[in-house]
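>> received
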Amino acid sequence: MPVTKLEKRLFKALVEDTTTSGGLSEAQVKREPANFLRHAVSLSMNKVADGLIDPKLVLSWLLAHLGASSFFVGLLVPIREAGALLPQLFTAPRVQAMRRRKWAWVAGSIGQGAAAAGIVLVALTLSAEAAGALICAFLAVLAVARSVCSVSYSDVLGKTVGQSRRGAATGTATSLGAGAVVLFALLLMSGLVERAVLVVVAIGLAALLWLAAGLVFSTLWEEPVPGEKRSATFAQLKILFHDPQLRRFIWARGLLTSTALAPPYIVLLGAQAGQGTFDRLGALVLASSIASFLSSWVWGRLADSSSRRVLMFSGMLGGLALGAAIVLDLAGATQMIWVLPLVLFVLMIAYHGVRQGRVIYLVDMAPKHNRATYTAVSNTMIGIVLLGSGVFGALASLAGAKATLLIFACMAFASIIVTKGLEDIDG
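>> returned
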């Protein structure tokens, strides 16, 4: 795969340091500019598709529109989050046995596209409980396919992009993807297209984008390696006993899930203050996508310098945003239409910092030959945390949204202390 002059220029424009190998082999160094751009393009498509089918906002609105019960709406986020993480303990050994692991990501991307197409078909033909049940089923398929992408991506990124340039690759992709989702949000707010039609078309576009992302990723040049012998599924958990840094990283990441779990309770504050959310889909998507667009590239570059500090800053910012939500609600300010969107905007900046920081820290921390296992074990443990959060959230909500947000704020602040104890892996 020859590298063109344009690819070299773009590569130098997007990264700061192009002089070091970054831990790559000689063959991979020669092809890094082209691989870097393929990562950015395919991951951008993936991020756009994620935004167009966001279970917290878009699919929740779609199920409500189709007349599905709140039972199915409540299942969407747990299915999506835990379903994308828990299977990785089983898929990691199979990924490690592959000579070229990019094909696992390609298969997962195609699987997500097929599942999204199934959701479109259900939305066009069914309603009420039947639609709710089948959309949840297709979302489960999408989540499992996503788990294959997740467990393979860290390994492929580590093999094809140098250590000091990985955050730039993922941050650039996330910002590009968020920019496209901003356009979707503006269309939702404009009223130019009927909202139900626009949502279904968006999910159909997500399906096509996942298929295209798989095609682009398949052209990435990955040096073949001898497939590793499959280890027993649960034997992978032994690394938790041998690597204290991994255990601390999982504790920190578990506490930082507060930035992902809190948004529904911020929306609940708005509902309690008399603000309806059913007609505010565009504003919610816009707040989330602008936060991603403005912050992800910056977080990515900072993560190349110190992903540990990115996690610490994100925990602090998330805790401050959640604390502000509580104080503003007690002061009666949440009745003003701009207050909670602003809080959500700041929280989403923290959330994207967590996502950037944890990916880069794990890739840099894990041994080269064992990245897939480290990713799988870490994600499986967080999947268990997220499943437990469903029960926790239900119990905590009995005390009210403010009490739940207070707990999440304490988790975010506690993550700073835990993260500070991690080794600072300088990119």
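>> The CA atoms of residues 116 and 369 lie 33 Å apart.
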